[in-house]
Write a structure and sequence with these properties.
The protein folds into 2 domains: 4-103, Serine-tRNA synthetase, tRNA binding domain (Helix Hairpins, Orthogonal Bundle); 118-421, Bira Bifunctional Protein, Domain 2 (BirA Bifunctional Protein, domain 2). It contains 12 helices and 16 strands. The protein has helices at residues 4-9, 11-20, 26-64, 70-103, 140-147, 152-159, 168-187, 202-208, 233-237, 294-311, 358-363, 387-397; strands at 122-127, 192-194, 199-201, 220-221, 226-228, 243-244, 251-260, 279-289, 316-320, 332-340, 345-354, 365-368, 374-376, 378-386, 405-406, 420-421. The strands form 4 sheets. The protein has an 8-stranded mixed sheet. The protein has a 3-stranded antiparallel sheet with strand order 3-5-4. Strand 4 and strand 5 (226-228) form a beta hairpin. The radius of gyration is 27 Å and the shape is elongated.
Length: 425
């Protein structure tokens, strides 16, 4: 959520930022008008209360003097009725203002590229090299079926399209990668591991910015008002909701969770395999940091996600997203994309974002500054990393001419020494 004081004092700055990201400035105009109306009503009510208090004192003096107080008492009663009516008006306006504020996206960082869509994103760097093949590389579907790693027909029969089923070495590889990433983030990068709930309430979803904008993209149990999490970012960030953090900063947390999303990709695009699914596993990194350090912390967050891929020896690139391509809550975001030779394209495997104090204001997460005064903290999160496309990249980048897949050495200890997945006999 944006700071209403910032909106009052620098509306043109907010308008320019929303325009850069392609957001409708009409919503900002509504926020400004509702805030002006609310403040006007509050001022009127305060004036009425002051007059009523003064008249109430006057009634006591008149009674002591033996004078008639009927007229002034009637005025006090009328003022009370008017105050009650206006208090209800204020509550109504405040509700509308709160809803409008929740729908305002974050303002993009001035330093990021300006553009309407992904075509304006900037490639920051490449890492590793694209492996030359002396055979036609297969996609992960063909590889996985040949190696017995997936069973898509039975998964569809159980749950419908977009819910993958991994078997044998496929399930083991997924589990090994999760353990590999958690070990790296906790032992090398200084994160504390969490295992949070996989369902959260609506307040938690609002806190990180999923509600109200993305309600239709998520799975909701209306009876209990609980949501299947679309990312571990939601429960991990909400760990400190409605709190003043009482521990030294920064705080780094990491968690593995399954993730659930109704919207599994762009309409009309390939939905076979595990490229675009409704359920997937992910290891997430979340940071709570002082505002003055948040952009430096973003760079190290990206580095932590890159370490995962570098340790596996994979070819990837880092993209700085433009103003029109960042998420609703982000001020700045980097995507990390893995090369998938069987897909002949790049696949996003991590998004690392700085939300500044946008989420903290929604979730009421604060810290104490050097003077001891509570201030809103800055939150960051990044995939460290998402599993389906990491699996795709490993299968496609590490495939061999004989149909086998040679596993990255870093993952071999987590596979009980298995170095290669070979076709079934």
């Amino acid at each position: 959520m944006l700071d209403i004081k910032r909106i009052r004092e620098r509306p043109n700055e907010i308008r320019e930022g929303l325009t850069r990201r392609g957001a409708d400035p009409v919503l900002l105009d509504r926020v400004i008008e509702l805030d002006r109306t609310r403040r006007g009503l509050v001022t009127q009510v305060e004036d009425l209360k002051n007059r009523r208090n003064a008249d109430s004192k006057k009634i006591g003096m008149l009674k002591k003097a033996g004078e008639d107080t009927a007229a002034i008492q009637a005025e006090v009663r009328a003022a009370g009725d008017r105050i009650a009516t206006m208090d209800e008006e204020i509550r109504t306006v405040e509700g509308s203002l709160g809803e409008a504020m929740l729908r305002l996206p974050n303002v993009p960082c001035p330093a990021i590229p300006t553009g309407a869509d992904a075509s304006a994103n900037r490639v920051v760097r490449h890492a590793g090299e694209s492996r030359p093949f002396d055979f036609e590389p297969q996609d992960h579907i063909a590889i996985g079926e040949r190696l017995g790693l997936f069973d898509f027909p039975r998964a569809t029969r159980m749950s419908g399209a977009g819910f993958p089923l991994l078997l044998g070495a496929g399930a083991k590889l997924q589990r090994a990668l999760i353990q590999y990433m958690l070990d790296m983030h906790t032992t090398r990068h200084g994160y504390t591991e969490m295992l949070p709930p996989f369902v959260v309430n609506s307040d938690s979803m609002r806190g990180t910015g999923q509600l109200p904008k993305m309600a239709e993209d998520m799975y909701h149990c209306e009876v209990d008002d609980l949501w299947l999490i679309p990312t571990a970012e939601v429960p991990v960030t909400n760990y400190f909701r409605d709190e003043i953090i009482d521990r030294p900063l920064p705080v780094y947390l990491t968690a593995y969770t399954p993730c659930f999303r109704r919207e599994a990709g762009s309409a009309g695009k390939e939905t076979r395999g595990i490229l675009r699914v409704h359920q997937f596993d992910k290891v997430e990194m979340v940071k709570f940091v002082e505002p003055s350090t948040s952009y430096a912390e973003l760079e190290t967050l990206v580095g932590h996600a890159e370490d995962v891929l570098q340790g596996l020896g994979l070819h990837y690139r880092v993209i700085e997203l433009c103003s029109g391509d960042i998420s609703f809550a982000a001020a700045k975001c980097y995507d990390i994309e893995l090369w998938a030779p069987g897909q002949h394209g790049w696949l996003e495997v991590s998004s690392c974002s700085n939300f500044e104090d946008f989420q903290a204001r929604r979730a009421n997460i604060r810290y104490r500054d050097a003077t001891g005064k509570p201030q809103f903290i800055h939150t960051l999160n990044g995939s460290g990393v998402a599993l389906p496309r990491l699996m795709i990249a490993i299968l496609e980048q590490c495939q061999q001419a004989d149909g086998s897949v040679t596993l990255p050495p870093a993952i071999v200890p987590y596979m009980n020494g298995l170095t290669q997945i070979v076709p079934r006999g």
